[in-house]
Amino acid sequence: MDIKIRLKILSFLQFFVWGSYLTSFGSYLFVSLKFSGPEIGTIFTTLGLSSLFMPALLGIVADKYVNSEKLLGVCHFVSAIFLILATYVTNSDQMFLVMLLVAMFYMPTIALTNSVSYNILKQYHFDVIKDFPPIRVWGTIGFIVAMWVVDILGWTISKNQLIVGAFSGVILSLYSFTLPKCPPSRTSENKSLSSILGLNAFVLFKQKKMLIFFCFAMLLGAALQITNMVGQDFLGDFGKVDAYKSSFAVEHPGILMSISQISETLFILAIPYFLTRFGIKKVMLMSMVAWVFRFGLFAVGNPNEGLFLLILSMVIYGLAFDFFNISGSLFVEKETDSSIRSSAQGLFMMMTNGFGSIIGAKACGYVVGYFSIDGLKDWTSIWLIFTAYAFILALVFPFVFKYKHHPVMLNEIKH
Q: Is the pTM of this model over 0.70?
């Protein structure tokens, strides 16, 4: 089978697992298990807490000791076991612990999948900047398919969504072991203590441009967590209004939200052009402006006459997410040596899905709680607060991130 097809399958399964429960898990906790807002916010911090150390730690293991594709398979298998365990949990404290274990083994696989894909593409002498985005787009397709399956089967508030994730995780685990070997970098020269411990990737923080890049990637990661945490809950609350309760947005929030992922597929394919032509600074600025519109349109949209505004927000999400997440991963790949490839990707993951996720979950929980009275949420005010947050990022970023774009250099990915 063509190696690109094999990597597309890998990407599809990687995000099918996550798409089966990520955007609907909050609704399951709210509606079926009757957890409170603060309890759910705490549970969602597991994504961030696990991403603080596990992606970087396992990135070190992949760089130094174990084949990346094998480590990927093991992580998915263990994560699937804990997902099954989560279906038996009805206590919020226990759910926090179990989902932390799920996240500890799933979150590193996102960075590992990127590293495996980069490694294999280079083994077969492909151009990473040109050939990775059309592969990664299949991850978004997998996410969409999973969301639709769960929504159409009526499992958005059911524990069955976790079973879907676990089953697909086991399939991906087995598939990972069939991929071409991605061995760790082993050299015979004397190594420093930091090299032995796999801490070399942290030297990137000594570069001012990389330090600023990682900080803004973290703040954009917070914006992403806000969408994941309350997006479907926002649409579901329209059901409390008689004029909206039978609308498509209320009855099928998962399908409406999936437009965001459909949009991703288009913008992922546009990344090579935009990165080559404009560079990472302008591409990330485009992402920040897109987040302003993402949240702003949520503030003024509704399921009836304002449905087109909600749909437009979903479409803009593709640009908002891809132009910092996928482009950022490619930028990190370009700026780092192959000997710390997995560690650097783990570091990027730590900043976006680690610190960024924690900031987003805590801030979101606070803002939603502040604008909630007797269970009713003032969603307009909530989304305007987040709009202002994204606007401030877009205003500050161009003045503090100094990076001169050289179009030719973007095609010179280090081997």
A: yes
| Helix H or strand E encompassing 376 | strand 376-377
State the chain's mean pLDDT as an integer.
86
Burial (CB < 10 A; 0-12, 13-18, 19+), residue 10, is buried
d(CA 395, CA 292): 11
CA distance 87 to 77: 16
Contact 98, 80 (CB under 8 A): no
| Residue 405 burial (CB count, 10 A) | 15
Cβ atoms of 260 and 298 within 8 Å: the answer is: no
Q: What is the DSSP code string of 88-147? A: T--SHHHHHHHHHHHHHHHHHHHHHHHHHHHHHHHHTT--HHHHHHHHHHHHHHHHHHHH
Sequence-ordered list of residues with C-beta below 8 angstroms from that of 83, at least 6 positions apart, any chain: 21, 102, 162, 163, 165, 166, 169
> Domain-by-domain residue ranges, the chain?
3-181+199-411
Q: In 3D, which of 76, 91, 88 has the Cα closest to residue 43?
A: 91
DSSP 8-state assignment for residue 242: T
What's the pLDDT tens digit per position in 190-220? 444 454 444 567 778 888 888 899 999 999 9
CB 323 within 8 A of CB 280: no
> What are the φ/ψ torsions at residue 34 (nearest 5 degrees)?
60, 35
- What confidence tens digit (pLDDT) does each residue in 317-374 have? 999 988 888 888 888 887 777 777 667 777 887 888 888 888 888 888 889 888 988 7
Q: Does domain 3-181+199-411 have CATH number 1.20.1440.20?
A: no
Query: What sign for the dihedral angle of Cα 254, 90, 16, 146?
Result: negative
Beta bridge partners of 377: 372
- 39 CB contacts (<8 Å, ≥6 apart)? 29, 92
Q: In whole angstroms, give the CA distance from residue 17 to residue 15.
A: 5
